[in-house]
Amino acid sequence: MKTTGGTDDQKRRAGERAAELVTDGTTVGLGTGSTAAFAVRAIARAVDDGLDVRGVPTSFATRELAREEGVPLVALDEVETLDLAIDGADQVDDDLNAIKGGGAAHTREKVVDAAADRFVVVADPSKTATTLDRAVAVEVLPDARTTVAARLRELGGDPTLRRAERKDGPVVTDNGNLVFDCEFGPIDDPATLSSDLSAIPGCVEHGLFVGMVDEVYVGTDDGVEVRTRG
Ligand SMILES: O=C[C@H](O)[C@H](O)[C@H](O)COP(=O)(O)O
Question: Which residues are responsible for catalysis (predicted)?
Answer without folding.
Answer: 109 (proton acceptor)
